[in-house]
Amino acid sequence: MIRIGHSFDLHRLEAGKRLVIGGIDIPFDKGLVAVSDGDVLLHALAESMLGALALGDLGTHFPPSDPASEGLDSSLILKTVYDKIKQTGYDIVNIDTMIYAEKPSLKPYKKSMQAHIARLLQIKTTQVSVKATTMERLGPIGHQEAIAASSTILLKASSHVVKL
Questions:
Q1: Contact (Cβ atoms closer than 8 angstroms) between residue 73 and residue 116
Q2: pLDDT tens, position by position, 18-69
């Protein structure tokens, strides 16, 4: 059996905040505002994983009202969600992601993001696609007010599938 999940995440940019995308610190004068570290790419990926298995959304598993979510490292969020995938008996076939940001340029960081995600999920880098695009200076992303990401994931049942 195969299952597919998709998600989109967007966070507002604010001066003086740390910018982390795909688990990689990116030098920039603005960072993402969130309860956790605000990593839109890892949030979209984790939520697409949950969606593929009909396990709810990120806010259900990591409520913003929970003090433990404050400043939480999104790599830990992703790893926790991945453990749920393994427990249900599914394996990752491939992941396709897109980051929407006018600035900074993410080209120098995409390979590092890809490697970080593959390492966390114990898969090959060839199973992870990290792409980035601008919004042609349109809307909140184009005006550098926000950064967003989307993720699609394909899962397949391993030999020991647990019924959902």
A1: no
A2: 999 999 999 999 999 998 889 999 999 999 999 999 999 998 888 888 888 7
Residue 121 lies in a domain: yes
Strands 128-133 and 90-100: parallel
Enumerate residues 6+ apart whose C-beta is below 8 A from 39: 20, 21, 22, 23, 32, 74, 75
Convert 67-87 to b/e letters by CB count within 10 Å (16 or more is b): eebeebebbebbeebbeebee
- Residue 163 domain-assigned (yes or no): no
Give domain status of residue 162, yes or no: no
Q: How many structural domains does the chain have?
A: 1
The answer to whether 119 touches 112, Cβ cutoff 8 Å, is no
- pTM exceeds 0.85 for this model: yes
Cβ distance 4 to 48 under 8 Å? no
Q: What is the CATH number of the domain that holds 74?
A: 3.30.1330.50
Tell me the chain's radius of gyration from C-alpha atoms: 15
Residue 73 three-state SS: coil
Give the domain range for residue 133: 2-157
